[in-house]
Amino acid sequence: MELYGYPLKAKFNQPRPPPPKVLPATSTMTGSCYNKTRMPYQPESFSMPWMPNSYYKAAALNPTLSPLTESFPGLPPTKMVPFVSERPNGVFSRHTLDDWHRSNMTNYKESETTRHNAERLRADLNRAIKDVYQQGKRSQGESTQNLGERVNDIEYWKSELCIELDAMIRETNSLADMQKRLERALADTEGPFQVAHKCLLNREKRMGIDLVSDDVEKQLIEEIKIIRSCRERLQQCLDTVNAQLMCNKEARQELEKDLADKQLGHHIDSKCYQMKNTSRGLHFFKGVERIDATVSVPETWARFTDNNIFRSQSARAASAKLRASTESLLMGTADEMWRQFSKVNDAFTSRITEIANAKSKIQTHLAKTRQEIFQIETKIQVIQKTIRDKEAQLKVAQTRLDERTRRPNVELCRDAAQLRLVQEVNEINETLRNLHQCLRASEDMLQMLVRSKGVLEHDLVVKNNSLFIDQERCMGMRKSYPSTVQILGYV
């Protein structure tokens, strides 16, 4: 039976039920807020000093009054109620009426004093409870305010990290594009290098006097040197760009890791900031306040993110500077290679013009030589016919002289006919000697003309071969030389 006006006995003061014989499954325990390291704290007892467990047990006992001698030791012995055993039927009085009144007054005063003390205690308890609530509210409000400031700080650094991460991603993509342009430009220099090398090899197939070290060969050798130098510079720049890309990726990874940590921390602190006394999932964690798992202070925490941002900004600045120098290198090498390519083409054009002019002159001299050979051959034929005619005349004159030697006796006269025949034979012999000299001279000249013709024809073949090599093979390959746009790597 519970008395009216007294606090009810709480349910948690009832004896606990006996534990079940079978333990629950482990799967049901893992699904709850069970944690090996942080177990929710369950207080041993919720009993308060002002609500003892034995309250109703003590109140249920029958109170007994102690003897007045014990309660009021100061009473005189004469006032003591004598024990009279001679009362009939065992009835007797133990105390007097004054004792009864004094006992009542004492109880009244004690009750009044107890009530006064209880009222004062209740007032003190109300003030203490109010102070506890106010202090708890103030402490919780300060903690909530600090959590809110922490959330704002994390949001600020998150925004800074996001801005820097976006800038780093854009810069890395730009540098990656520059890397691809460098690789294409380096690959495009292979074609001009092979063309210049093949031109030198093809010009080694020139023949005779045309196998000279002319300006074309010098410009081709210079072009090979320039292309090799440009390839080395482009390769060095490509290695630098690759190293800078690695630095950018490392800075980007640090930013992403820091941003992921900030996002997780922001989620946890936001969850803590939104917690209230009525929130769900609240538990006791005994001794958690004694665990210090922190690894930084606000200064080192902010300095860590600031260092990551500064490192990323430094990497971006170096990357932008490298992109500018790479762009300048691409333009410089392209312009240098293109100017040397133009010089080689100009040298080829000039040399082709010289060879063409020489070929034209050779053809002209060859035509004239052939015409002269034809005329000399004609003259030789005329001289040979003249010699044959003169030999016929000589035969006639000598035959006449031979026949006249057979004249008898005095008929062998040195007459005018004899003298003229002798003179005619001498004249014909002199003429034949002159004609034979002219024939030999003409034949010698014909041999010289034929030799000159052979030289001219061979020289014409040499010039044709040189013209074919320079004009068809070399210039034919150099027409497919990549343009400046291809060298710069825009396509």
Explained architecture:
It is a peripheral membrane protein. Microtubule inner protein (MIP) part of the dynein-decorated doublet microtubules (DMTs) in cilia and flagellar axoneme. Forms filamentous polymers in the walls of ciliary and flagellar microtubules. Required for normal sperm mobility. Keywords: Cell projection, Cilium, Coiled coil, Cytoplasm, Cytoplasmic vesicle, Cytoskeleton, Flagellum, Membrane, Ubl conjugation. It comes from Sylvia borin. The protein is 72% helix and 0% strand. The longest helix has 107 residues, at 298-404. It is rod-shaped and about 245 Å long. The two termini are 99 Å apart. It is mostly helical and 491 residues long. The model is unreliable at 1-15 and 19-85 (pLDDT under 50).
Biggest beta sheet summary: none
Tally the helices: what do you get? 9
> In total, how many beta strands?
0
- Silhouette: rod-shaped
In angstroms, what separates the terminal alpha carbons? 99 Å
Order of helices and strands: HHHHHHHHH
User: From the alpha-carbon coordinates, what is the Rg to the nearest angstrom?
Assistant: 67 Å
What integer is the average pLDDT?
82
How much helix, percentage-wise, in residues?
A: over 70%
Question: In terms of structural class, how would the helical and strand content be classed?
Answer: mainly alpha
Q: Approximately what portion of the residues adopt beta-strand conformation?
A: under 5%
Low-confidence stretches: 1-15, 19-85
